[in-house]
Design a protein that fits this description.
The protein has 534 residues and is mainly α. It folds into three domains: 1-151, no CATH class; 222-331; 353-534, no CATH class. Helices cover 55% and strands 5% of the residues. It is built from 20 helices and seven strands. The chain has helices at residues 3-7, 10-26, 39-49, 62-71, 82-94, 98-124, 127-138, 141-146, 153-175, 228-241, 247-267, 273-302, 305-311, 315-331, 384-387, 390-404, 407-420, 446-462, 493-515, 521-527; strands spanning 190-192, 208-210, 335-338, 343-346, 365-371, 374-379, 519-520. It has a three-stranded antiparallel β-sheet with strand order 5-6-7. The protein has a two-stranded antiparallel sheet with strand order 1-2. Strands 3-4 form a two-stranded antiparallel ribbon. A hairpin with a 2-residue loop joins strand 5 (365-371) and strand 6 (374-379). Helix 5 (82-94) crosses helix 6 (98-124) and helix 11 runs antiparallel to helix 17 (407-420). 38% of the residues are buried.
């Protein structure tokens, strides 16, 4: 057995992804050596939660003392506590130092790449695509930056990705327990009397007879209440909501996909779509409510137990705190009145509308240091091949879902869309977010962007030229071989190789802006491709 054959294993691909992603995220993790961007809130909050002193946690201003006393938090009190507890565990292990408050983010970011590789293996079943999917996350600039700072979003991405991994495992679990419908002929169907080669040419015309056969015997589709992977998905997505409330979008996406899959499973019984949906509602509602409502709600409440222990076991006080969080997000506006200038000014310079995220119009500047003729900067730049490529891969996967009825295409496309659409400020009050948005809010959607890219590249790699009859549309017959006129070549594979090469090249090119390396002003200007990146 050759070395290449030995390396062509899913386990090898997953380990390679883990080493690549982990190495990139842990390399010089303590640099910059101080708090950057919103680490000012989240690192201090994590330190406060684990019981650090005001001096150790760098609680200095009057506002910070107020938040510690009244919120047991920092300015990040407007978000649930789980992500801050995860940051605090790193501080507990390594101290209130840059490595300590960033280490949990690096681990979460590494595991996201590994889990995306696992999902790709479950979907496509080949180590090549497993490796490629994980590598796309490992080398995506936005994932790299968010995995190297102490913020909540990478922890949100971790739990979302884990939830959808469990959802795919649930589909495989139930499919293995669902028998295929029996192929019983219907009434009036022609039934062969003998094998075709058992009769002579003169008898073949009468070798079938129309019989009064019984109606098809349907196989009952199992609907067990206990589905371990579905409940595991509910736990993970409940944890996502306990990091940021926007995790609810992923929870909704998972529930919608579960209903669609269950309806499709019943449609295979040879029943109409409306009847299949009705059966799904009747048989699955309790299980879905348990897995995607009650379990996530229970997980969310568990993450608040330390808060109850700290402030007292008062549900009314806790509910008032939840309302205060809601009011903050509801009333946060992009512009606020400045009494000094008597004008409305932006409340932050880096807001961006969700429809611009794929185009990466306005990344967020996390850190900048002017060093004479040199500069250091950390900019949340995603890999352009992944983000701009989504302009093509999203429509293609939607088309493949419709044209080929491939549930995998539907899974990756809907996993992205159902998280993205609520941010688009659509004219539907219950289906939109009104607060201002940042580019890095797209982070939990990047695993699906990577999977859409892999799905498209896989189809391009496997595609071959096929000649069809101009009249019937059927595959033409090769006059030389007498077989189908299908080329043995794969003409689109050079595009696949080029895309992967460009992806890697873009990661290397923008590396200085992902980790804050020192570069000259002239070289920095060459990296700033759009004026809105400045």
């Amino acid at each position: 057995m050759s070395l290449l054959h030995r390396l062509n294993r899913p386990a090898v691909a997953i380990v390679a992804v883990a080493l690549l992603a982990g190495g990139i995220r842990l390399w010089h993790l303590s640099d910059p050596p101080d708090l950057v961007f919103d680490e000012l809130y989240y690192a201090k909050a994590g330190c406060v939660l684990i019981g650090g002193s005001d001096q150790e946690c760098r609680v200095e201003s009057g506002d910070e003392h107020y938040w510690v006393e009244h919120k047991w938090d920092m300015g990040s009190w407007v978000h649930p506590p789980l992500g801050k507890w995860m940051t605090g565990m790193g501080i507990k292990a390594f101290g209130m130092e840059p490595f300590g408050w960033r280490f949990p983010s690096a681990i979460s970011g590494t595991l996201v790449a590994v889990m995306v590789a696992l999902v790709a293996q479950l979907l496509f079943g080949r180590p090549l695509w497993t490796l490629l999917a994980g590598t796309f996350i490992a080398l995506d600039g936005l994932n790299v930056v968010m995995s190297r700072v102490a913020m909540l979003d990478v922890h949100l991405e971790f739990w979302v990705t884990l939830g959808f991994l469990c959802l795919v495992l649930d589909r495989r679990w139930i499919d293995r327990r669902t028998a295929a419908p029996l192929e019983t002929p219907s009434v009036g169907a022609p039934v062969p009397l003998d094998p075709p080669d058992a009769v002579g040419p003169e008898a073949q015309g009468s070798a079938v007879a129309v019989v009064d056969a019984p109606a098809p015997r349907r196989v009952r589709v199992p609907s067990p209440l206990w589905r371990p992977w579905r409940f595991a998905a509910g736990v993970a997505l409940g944890a996502a909501c306990a990091v940021k409330w926007s995790g609810a979008f992923a929870l909704l996406a998972a529930a919608v996909l579960a209903v669609m899959w269950e309806t499709t499973r019943r449609h295979r019984e040879d029943v109409s779509w409306p009847r299949a949906f009705a059966r799904t509602v009747g048989m699955e509602t309790l299980g879905l409510v348990l897995a995607f409502v009650l379990v996530p709600a229970g997980v969310y409440m568990v993450t608040w137990l330390p808060w109850f222990h700290h402030f007292g076991w008062s549900l009314s006080a806790w509910w008032e705190d939840q309302q205060a969080m809601w009011d903050y997000h509801k009333h946060l506006t992009e512009f606020a009145y400045d009494s000094k200038t008597k004008t409305f000014t932006p409340t932050h310079g880096s807001y961006s509308n969700a429809w611009t995220w794929i185009f990466m119009k306005r990344p967020v500047n996390f850190f900048v240091q002017d060093i004479g003729t040199d500069v250091r900067q950390i900019l949340t730049l995603g890999n352009l091949a992944l983000f701009w490529g989504t302009i093509f891969t999203l429509p293609y996967t939607l088309w493949a879902w419709w044209r080929k009825r491939d549930w995998r295409a539907g899974f990756v496309a809907m996993g992205f869309l159902l998280q993205w659409v609520p941010w688009l400020r659509l004219p539907v009050p219950w289906l939109r977010v009104s607060r201002p948005e940042f580019f890095f809010y797209i982070l939990p959607m990047t695993p699906f962007m990577a999977l859409m890219a892999v799905y498209t590249l896989r189809d391009l790699s496997d595609a071959r030229l096929v000649l069809r009859d101009s009249v019937t549309g059927d595959v033409a017959i090769d006059p030389e071989t007498g077989g189908p006129a299908v080329s043995t070549r794969h003409p689109y594979r050079p595009f696949v190789y080029a895309y992967v090469a460009i992806f890697v090249a873009l990661f290397v090119w923008f590396w200085p802006l992902l980790v804050g390396s020192r570069i000259s002003d002239a070289l920095w200007r060459v990296h700033i491709w759009l004026p809105t990146w400045n």
